[in-house]
Description:
The structure is a single chain. The chain has a domain at 59-268: SGNH hydrolase (Rossmann fold). The longest helix has 32 residues, at 12-43. 37% of the residues lie in helices and 14% in strands. By secondary structure, the protein is α/β, with parallel strands linked by helices.
Amino acid sequence: MLDVTMRDGDNPAMNRTTTANAGRALAALMLIALWLLGAALLARAADGRPYIPYPKERYRIFVFGDRMATGLLAGLWRVLRNNRKFIARGRFRAGSGLARLSYYDWRRAIARVVKSRQVDIAIVMLGINDVHDIFLGGKRIPFGSDQWKRIYASRVDAIIDTVRNAGVALYWVGLPPVRDPTLDVAASLINDIIRERARAGGVRFIDIRRHFLGPNGSYTDTGRGVRGQLTRLRARDGIHFVKPGNTKLASIVMDVILKDVKQTESAGAAPALSGVEETDKPYVGMAAPDGTPVYVPHTALPGANEVFLAQGAPAAGLGGGGVLAALRDAVPPDSTTAKLFVEGRWPEASPALLGSFTLPATKVKKTAPAQSTQQP
């Protein structure tokens, strides 16, 4: 039985032992709950639920990537100028990608953002700068080799896992055709890897290539803009976009996102909280197995101070309801753990008790971005 209270007249030595054991047991229960939460978030898109799990009054989009992604964000601002339902920001590093982690590690950068900021939708556009050999452990792995493909795929997987574990809907934008034939073949290879890993990871891959090909299926600088007019879309380098091209790119991406938002809002999913501070909170001060803080997206919390346990976590052999019922049965009435698992009330720390714990402040420390922009 778990009881973290101390009564007048009880044996102090016995209560110190009991309290310490209770604290360790409570920590174990919290860790189980965290594992269940991660399993549930990974399974969201595979069980027939909407891709964007919860409707929001306002969706926060965050774009990650290189110089091409910078143009995408600028296009989003134009496309969404009169749509107050979305707000778009981004983080960029020119010349970056996944092949040279020594230059910029996108998995770490994205992990920091999705943990410290409110992000509903993540858009990633990377790869055009990855036509390089990979150097790993002092060894050079040639671009396009089987080993290169495996390493690159693992880095794509790492970003997918990072975003999905944070409960954020991920949209990975593919690469467009480019003028140089050799670079175009390489970009297509990278597209194929990302497309396959996105499919395996259950996330959206937005293939933009066909939208920027000429009538004969080859590269072209010009094409139809968002209003149907024939205009220049590509920059003189034959790689990037000019303003009309970025606007068209953003329109293509938003068409996919808007379809998912429509599905979410028509599915009758539980609406997001209103009047509650929308910030990710550490889950009862717990840490992941690797020692890093674990943040639960506010969209995963059913109420301001309620407990969220994953629904249907196969790894534990019990559905979320079964786990919650077991936890409720295991705790004594009127105990601190009963308040937590039965009533959904956060325990109050008592420094006088051995084994007590104190919840960390909910304010999240913001890290300075490498390059960060926000909507004017």
